[in-house]
């Protein structure tokens, strides 16, 4: 796909210019792109420290899309997006897990709702739940996360 080739080009250019940590959000999404990232990592000597994959069920994906009410969120487009996920994204994550190991690839459930006593969704705490899981996967200790939660 042309957009992946553009991303790959930009990634190769930027990765070669910096010695800092690179954070890729939403990439790679296909096994071919994952192969490219691994190749680029090896060629440029940039280690892959962690891959964090956030996932939700098909039902939750549909519920979220319906809640945001974008014009392009039709049942057909949502089905195509989910099928792309099943056909391409999941296999790329499994490929990375096979190549890098399960310690490097963290699978995080992005649906961790927190409810108030009255039964309503506490969106802020729900987002913090997911963020805390990601930070823990990145190696931030539970003690630090609890301290941060107490301060907020």
Low-confidence stretches: none
What is the strand tally? Answer: 2
The percent of residues in helical segments reads 55-70%
Count of DSSP H/I helices: 6
H/E topology pattern = HHEHHEHH
Distance between the termini: 43 Å
Quaternary state reads single chain
Which sequence of strands runs across the widest sheet? 1-2
Taking all Cα atoms into account, the compactness measure Rg is: 18 Å
Main sheet summary: 2 strands, parallel
β-sheet strand percentage: 5-15%
What does this structure look like?
- The chain has 152 residues and is mainly alpha-helical.
- The chain has six helices and two strands.
- A two-stranded parallel ribbon has the order 1-2.
- Helix 1 packs parallel to helix 2 and helix 2 packs parallel to helix 4.
- The chain is globular, with a radius of gyration of 18 Å.
